[in-house]
Model the fold of this input.
Amino acid sequence: MTVTARDGTPAARPPGDSLQPDTMGPWLSTSWMGRRHVHVATCTSTNDLAAAEARAGAPAGTLVTADEQTAGRGRLGRTWHAAPGDNLTFSIVLRPGRPAPEIPTLTLLAGGALAQALGDLRFPARLKWPNDVLLRVQENGAERSRKVAGILTEAATVGSDVSHVVVGIGLNVNVAQFPAEIAARATSLRLVRGAPLLRAEVLARVLARLEAAVDDFQQRGPAAATALWDAHADRALRCRARVGDQDIEGVADGVSADGSLRLRDDDGEIHPVMSGEIIAVIE
Done:
């Protein structure tokens, strides 16, 4: 399959940049994550494919990758931009065996693992609650935070038990130009580094960090997730959140044990943001 950019020209990608299982295999250092791998050229959503695999009995660690998603989605039903062959769009099947109330913190865990992996590749990533991964970029002589990845975690239950969890990740790797409607808030690893990267290598780094994080979560539960997220939180990010019936402005002060955001206002008061949505980032 020849991958083309949105303007119809061949997309500039490193030679051999493939996510086929036979290409991915030599890159993997994991014990169980990614060892069963389903790859498709295109699909509506890797989360949907992974969920179908899970319902059919796929083991924990099953990896689903796609070169293109036609209906990829993010949190709150938002769409996820993914040019064919440029990005990483993948999902992992987990069977954590933890109580259902603990499962939402897996989003924080995945964010922390992703930030670790990007750090291994010399990208100093920071996290915006609850599911965004940011990089700082230079624009017009000033530093700006731009989104490089997003996480969507979806769980399935049988009665009160969690049967499986699908963690979906979209990571901008080799995008050279974004659509106008998101160009001001998105970036890619390629844009930051100035050169394309091998998606297989990036994915292998993420899987290694995520496997270690999930193993820790199996043992310690949410404490593993909140500690990992806190270690990479963007504490300089000023934002506005809807808390109850009012808008609160302040900076992130980490997360609490239940995974809720601690938003510190200008008077030093801490406001827990649980179901409240961060509605603006203030630069």
About this structure: The longest helix spans residues 199-220. Residues 35 and 62 are 7 Å apart (CA to CA). The domain at 238-282 is CATH 2.30.30.100 (SH3 type barrels.). Residues 1-11 have pLDDT under 50 and may be disordered.
